[in-house]
């Protein structure tokens, strides 16, 4: 064998040995991989499942929708509509940062601002990009198929009645939590409890499959208010027109159901639209009828007369001598527009005599007068539960001076809210029964408390009818076909250093129909300008317009139909 042939044979053997070695190596590698696969999939599959779940399973929140707010007849005042919010995992979105400007355009965000937000949040796994988009807008974002960009279903509050019920209903924040009005007062009732579910997602973060339900959502409960939207709109429209007509600073109307204590309407001007967040400011959205106090002026006089009757020292026929047309109490001289002489309690109210009511109040014991005022609800919160409600101001009689008792008689030195004043008049309308105020529809009238003798309340009502009759101060509050009992009020506004001589509050408070009251209504117009500023000229006509339509809407039968000539009736029957 030649040397060359021998060398070739040795090379072939070495190659075959190396080939065998390589084959053995790969065989062992294959066996080890198979063994490892068997080990992981058979003996250690829980570990693999855990790792897969960590990478692809996510827990998502199931948003619960907020309960609906309706009026007493089921008309919606606040509803929740579905919206979508876009969020992202910054770590997953960062590799596609070159496509962020495209995303920003769809979201209406500055591209550079969005890039900065994403890059500054690399330590987070959740970042809201835009809240409350329509489902159609959200789908356009999802169609971009950007990694880490997801959508979350939420709900946004919508108020169908807008500014008509804005002050009462209030509003929620972007997370659907109540911030003002009934939305805040009943947040615990309206708010739902979100659920949770486990979902399978692909590498782009899109949900592929709902794996399991962890916790079902509990949706909020509905709230039926006491408001009658028909009367609410009527009051809103009438008040708005009056504020414009008299160029007034503000105004409020409250209408209560005397039989139940339910609030049928409560409106303010100026108002705001809770659907427009740009209008949100404390000056616009506070409910003046419940939170703002004012001195009631002569509208408090019926309560003073009721206290006199309750004392047992006076009867409806009692006479008060107001001559010579003024009375001096301490350093103050209290006057009437003219000397009315000896007048009855009815005339004191009909002609709004400051002298007569002052003498009446000064003849009563301070504790007796104070107790009667508190039984009407003055100086205490109503039971409305409305956030920010004011209790008004009624100083304890231990701190009274003679002048305090005198000015209280015609509505100074005491402050009330429009809602408080309406509740006080409802006591007169319900034969002396004090009922809690309710902003929620009641299945049955709440049990009231007898705080005033029924005959005293009825007597004051009869006297108040004279206020609206010819010769009284409130004739413009009359309603055709109905007997009306009410009282005008005009109060100077308090200013630095004393009372202003050119700023007034005009008031009318009353009951309808007087024979069997169903409605108690209060109209307050703050700072009317121009020649007309008395309650009889500014507030009384508003009362007439609102109450007349409300009585018809509620189908309350007239109690003052004009008498017809019997002859004409017989003639009509014979035809």
Number of DSSP E strands: 19
The rounded distance between the terminal residues' Cα atoms is: 154 Å
Mean pLDDT: 88
Major sheet characteristics: 5 strands, mixed
Overall helicity: 25-40%
Task: Give the overall form.
Answer: elongated
CATH class of the largest domain: Alpha Beta
**How large is the share of residues in beta strands?**
15-25%
Number of domains: 2
Based on CA atoms alone, the radius of gyration comes out at: 38 Å
| Count, helices | 21
Low-confidence stretches: none
What oligomeric assembly is this protein in? single chain
CATH superfamily of the largest domain: DD-peptidase/beta-lactamase superfamily
Class derived from helix and strand content:
alpha+beta
CATH architecture of the largest domain: 3-Layer(aba) Sandwich
Summarize it.
By secondary structure, this protein is α+β, with helices and mostly antiparallel strands. It is built from 21 helices and 19 strands.
């Amino acid at each position: 064998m030649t040397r060359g042939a021998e060398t070739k044979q040795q090379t072939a053997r070495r190659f075959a040995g190396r080939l065998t070695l390589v084959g053995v190596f790969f065989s062992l590698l294959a066996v080890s991989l198979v063994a490892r696969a068997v080990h992981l999939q058979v003996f250690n599959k829980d570990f693999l499942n855990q790792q897969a779940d960590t990478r692809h399973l996510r827990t998502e929140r199931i948003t619960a929708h907020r309960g609906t707010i309706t009026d007493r007849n089921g008309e919606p005042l606040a509803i929740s509509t579905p919206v979508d919010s876009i969020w992202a995992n910054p770590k997953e979105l960062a590799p596609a940062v070159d496509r962020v400007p495209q995303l920003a355009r769809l979201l209406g965000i500055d591209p550079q601002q969005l890039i900065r937000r994403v890059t500054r949040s690399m330590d987070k796994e959740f970042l809201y990009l835009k809240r409350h988009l329509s489902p159609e807008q959200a789908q356009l974002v999802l169609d971009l198929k950007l990694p880490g960009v997801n959508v979350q279903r939420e709900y946004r509050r919508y108020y169908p009645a807008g500014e008509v019920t804005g002050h009462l209903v209030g509003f929620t924040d972007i997370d659907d939590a109540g911030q003002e009005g009934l939305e805040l007062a009943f947040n615990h009732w309206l708010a739902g409890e979100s659920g949770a579910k486990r979902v399978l997602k692909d590498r782009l973060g899109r949900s592929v499959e709902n794996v399991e339900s962890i916790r079902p959502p509990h949706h909020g409960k509905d709230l039926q208010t006491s408001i009658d939207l028909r009367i609410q709109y009527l009051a809103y429209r009438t008040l708005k027109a009056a504020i414009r007509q008299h160029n007034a600073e503000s105004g409020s109307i409250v209408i209560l159901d005397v039989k139940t204590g339910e609030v049928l309407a409560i409106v303010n001007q100026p108002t705001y639209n809770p659907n427009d967040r740009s209008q949100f400011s404390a000056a616009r959205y506070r409910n003046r009828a419940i939170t703002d106090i004012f001195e009631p002026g002569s509208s408090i006089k019926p309560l003073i007369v009721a206290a006199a009757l309750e004392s047992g020292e006076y009867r409806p026929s009692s006479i008060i001598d107001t001559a010579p047309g003024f009375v001096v109490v301490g350093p103050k001289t209290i006057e009437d527009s003219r000397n009315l002489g000896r007048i009855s309690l009815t005339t004191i109210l009909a002609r709004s005599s400051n002298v007569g009511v002052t003498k009446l109040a000064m003849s009563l014991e301070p504790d007796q007068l104070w107790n009667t005022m508190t039984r009407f609800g003055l100086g205490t919160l109503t039971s409305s539960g409305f956030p920010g409600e004011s209790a008004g101001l009624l100083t304890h009689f231990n701190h009274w001076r003679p002048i305090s008792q005198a000015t209280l008689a015609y509505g100074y030195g005491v402050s009330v809210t429009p809602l408080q004043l309406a509740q006080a008049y409802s006591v007169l309308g319900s034969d002396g029964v004090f009922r809690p105020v309710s902003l929620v529809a009641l299945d049955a009238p709440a049990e009231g408390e007898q705080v005033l003798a029924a005959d005293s309340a009825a007597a004051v009502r009869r006297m108040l009818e004279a206020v609206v009759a010819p010769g009284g101060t409130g004739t413009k509050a009359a309603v055709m076909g109905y007997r009306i009992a009410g009282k005008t009020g005009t109060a100077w506004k308090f200013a630095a250093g004393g009372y202003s001589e050119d700023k007034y509050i005009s008031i009318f408070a009353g009951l309808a129909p007087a024979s069997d009251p169903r409605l108690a209504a209060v109209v307050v117009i703050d700072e009317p300008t121009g020649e007309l500023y008395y309650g009889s000229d500014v507030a009384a006509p508003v009362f007439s317009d609102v109450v007349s339509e409300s009585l018809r809407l509620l189908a309350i039968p007239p109690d003052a139909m004009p008498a017809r000539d019997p002859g004409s009736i017989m003639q009509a029957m014979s035809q």
